[in-house]
Design goal:
The protein has five helices and seven strands, in the order βαββααβαβββα. The protein has about 200 residues and is of the alpha+beta class. A hairpin with a 4-residue loop joins strand 6 and strand 7.
């Protein structure tokens, strides 16, 4: 995928929290994040936030039920999809800049860098395809937090999951299909605490 495990890289764009990322349960993860079924079948990376965020770093994009951070269901074309109002814009209009900034400050916590509330990004090997129908490529997700990072923030390239279900970290590998609960628990603990 071009990124090296254990490195820290800059990332901007949509993110969620670790509680919605479940290696070994890819169909559940796809449904939670709003990826079409099979999007994770060719493998994926898990990036974990590795810095403290400030209000200047992000905008609210609702939840993963809001494909692309926009209100309503995903549309049949990219041009139609772009017409859906953004959650950020609606909140800004309702709250004003000061009220919006207050919401951002209230949302920031130390848990964004550790634990199940840690900010995470799943990068599928199957990338976004320009021109595909948004409603197919990004169906409504399961309702996990969704923020848009508006500038590059530091993320640890923490895990690579292969198509065969081997989850590799900079320190160990586990085979998720045969490793059962113990393998998933070991990986989960690593993801909650890695830095």
């Amino acid at each position: 995928m071009g990124l090296k495990l254990g490195d820290v890289t800059g990332f901007e764009g949509n993110v969620t929290t670790l509680q919605w990322v479940k290696p070994g349960h890819e169909r559940q993860t796809e449904a939670s994040l709003g990826y079409e079924t099979g999007r994770l079948a060719q493998g994926y990376l898990i990036l974990l936030l590795n810095q403290t965020l400030t209000p200047a770093d992000f905008e609210f994009d609702g939840t993963t039920m809001r494909s692309g951070g926009r209100l309503g269901l995903p549309a049949a074309s990219e041009s139609e999809d772009a017409l859906r109002p953004r959650v950020h814009d609606v909140l800004m209009a309702e709250r004003g800049p000061d009220g919006y900034a207050a919401l951002q400050r209230a949302a920031l916590s130390p848990g964004l860098r550790r634990g199940s509330e840690r900010i995470a990004k799943v990068l599928p090997a199957i990338r976004h395809v320009t021109g595909r129908i948004p409603a197919e490529q990004y169906p409504m997700g399961g309702g996990g937090l969704q923020w848009r990072l508006v500038r590059e923030c530091d993320f640890l390239i923490a895990v690579e999951v292969s198509p065969s279900g081997v989850a590799t970290t900079p320190h160990f590998s586990v085979h998720l299909p045969s490793g059962g609960y113990e393998a998933r628990a070991r990986l989960r603990q690593y993801m909650m605490t890695a830095h």
